[in-house]
Specification:
Helix content is about 20%, strand content about 35%. By secondary structure, the protein is α+β, with helices and mostly antiparallel strands.
Length: about 90
């Protein structure tokens, strides 16, 4: 079963290919995506990786969390499901 990982504190020079190359050392990468700003196209400093198995994902977390990539210590952990952040803002209007 595929497992999605969150990768934070990325250097702004990192791109999808950088993540794919880095994580492929620990298993099959299904997808690699650095999140970018819609207006500027600049990296937001985080991204997501999908590994083909939970075991490969766990190995990548153990090997890469807090490791240096271009002068920054990246953070790697299991991605959490996306929530609707709009529901957390202000009073509800009926």
């Amino acid at each position: 079963m595929e497992k999605k990982l969150y990768v934070g504190n990325l250097p702004y020079s990192a791109n999808d290919a950088t993540l794919n190359e880095l994580f492929s050392k620990y298993g099959e990468v299904v997808s690699a995506k650095v999140i970018t700003d819609a207006d500027s196209g600049r990296s937001k400093g985080f991204g997501f990786i999908e590994m083909s198995t939970a075991e490969e994902a766990q190995k990548a977390i153990e090997q890469l969390n807090d490791k240096e990539l271009d002068g920054r210590n990246i953070k790697v952990n299991e991605a959490k499901p996306k929530t609707d952040s709009r529901s957390d803002r202000g009073p509800k209007r009926w």
